[in-house]
Amino acid sequence: MNRQINFDICGRVLRFVPFSGKSGLSSFYLLFAAGLFLVGCSTTQSPVPVVDREKINSSGPLKPTESANMDGQIYTVQRGDTLYGIALKYGIDFKKLVEWNEIVDPRSLQPGQKIRLSMTEKESQPVLFALPQQPVTTNIEPSAFPAESAMASQEESRPDVVDNHKVKTSPKALKLPYSEQNVARLQYPENNPSAIAPSSVATAVVPGNNTRIEVPPSSESLKSDRTIESSVTEWIWPTTGKLLASFSKNSKGVKISGKAGQPILASASGEVVYSGHGLRGYGNLIIIKHDNTFLSAYAHNSKLLVKEGEVVVKGQKIAEMGNTDTDTIQLHFEIRKHGKPVDPLEYLPSQS
Questions:
Q1: Nearest CA to 78 among 298, 277, 309?
Q2: What percentage of residues in the chain have a pLDDT greater than 70?
Q3: Looking at the 3D structure of the chain, how many domains does it have?
Q4: What's the pLDDT band for 63 if we cut at 50, 70, 90?
Q5: Domain containing residue 112: CATH number
Q6: Rounded Cα distance, 331 and 323, in Å
Q7: Rounded to whole angstroms, how far apart are CA atoms 199 and 76?
Q8: What is the DSSP string of 23-54?
Q9: CB-based contacts of 7: which residues, under 8 Å, 6+ apart?
Q10: Has residue 264 been placed in a domain?
């Protein structure tokens, strides 16, 4: 009867039954099997990670960041809003609102209309356009032409511009005999009204499609803008009274105390661009545009004496002091430069 031998190797039980009569061979197989188990125990394999795919897919698509909604703030026009009032409320230059929203008539705002309060970084970058490599030429035909000799030299010097078959050939100009006087007449036609300069045959270069040409402003328009911007040379106090609050981070202007019905004067000449009570926190408000740079605002009035579109002069009575949208009788006075509030005390004369 064969005797069974049990081996415990690395927690595994190996049973070996030697064959009778072959003890040498059985011992060999026994040692060989034990070696295989030892090799198997010496190798440690890391477990395969378990991934729950349902949890990964359940998270859904990635949401866009909040910064995607920060570009280009939009304001919805309410009943009674004006473009000047919106610019005053958000501290934006009125001209920029007109440009960003391509507004033709600032007084044509409608309730529900969307007004952009800023430009995205991409839109604010200048756009460059390249002219096509092969410009389209359009011949401009004059009513008369110079002598043929001058015409021939003109065509030879500009063969790529003048199209000979498009040029009128009749009536032909008279041939002049060669002389120094006739040569001078051709070279200097301004001294001879009867002659026409060869440059009268010209071509107009027409850009291709999708090409925008920026025309620089004329010197006269630039001069006009500078004149308008420098038109306000002196300001006056809009009313008399004690200064309740000065210009600060929390106050966009100055507050002046007074009595109910006290006259409110235009601090400088200009056009009334707003007269109403549609801007919260300002009560009965008047805004005067003085030029392309300055605006002035007069708030909390009890009575408004001017309407939009009226031209007022410095010192003219435009309202009466009150306490609309505030607790005390006062005038809140602001000066805006390019839409931004500035300290009125830097422009008003010192009080004695």
A1: 277
A2: 47
A3: 3
A4: very low
A5: 3.10.350.10
A6: 8
A7: 56
A8: HHHHHHHHHHHHHHHHHHHH--PPPPPP--HH
A9: 13, 14, 15, 16, 34, 37
A10: yes
> Token pair for residue 209?
């499609």
Side chain identity at residue 68, one-letter code: A
The mean-pLDDT minimum among 17-21, 240-244, 284-288 falls in 17-21
The residue length of the chain stands at 352
Specify whether 23 is located in the same domain as 109: no
Q: How far apart are CA 171 and CA 150, in angstroms?
A: 16
**Cα–Cα distance for residue pair 85/98, rounded to 1 Å:** 13
Nearest C-alpha neighbor of 87 from the set 116, 112, 122, 125: 116
Angstrom distance (rounded) from CA 218 to CA 272: 29
Long-range contacts of 259-262 (CB under 8 A, 24+ apart): 259/321, 259/329, 260/302, 260/320, 260/321, 260/322, 260/323, 260/329, 261/302, 261/303, 261/320, 261/321, 261/322, 262/320, 262/321
Predicted model pTM: 0.47
Closest CA to 136 of 206, 203, 210, 212: 206
- Residues contacting residue 64 through CB under 8 Å, at least 6 positions apart: none
Read off the tokens for 348.
Answer: 């008003």
Of the chain, the end-to-end C-alpha distance in Å amounts to 133
Domain range for residue 329?
243-346
The stretch 231-258 carries a mean pLDDT of: 93
Gap between the Cα atoms of 293 and 94, Å rounded: 10
Q: How far apart are CA 347 and CA 254, in angstroms?
A: 12
Distance between CA atoms of residues 319 and 303, nearest Å: 6
CATH of the domain at 317: 2.70.70.10
Question: Do the strands 311-312 and 317-321 form a parallel or antiparallel pair, or are they unpaired?
Answer: unpaired
Do the domain assignments include residue 176? Answer: no
Task: Write down the pLDDT at residue 322.
Answer: 98
In a domain, 190, yes or no: no
Report yes or no on 320 lying in a domain: yes
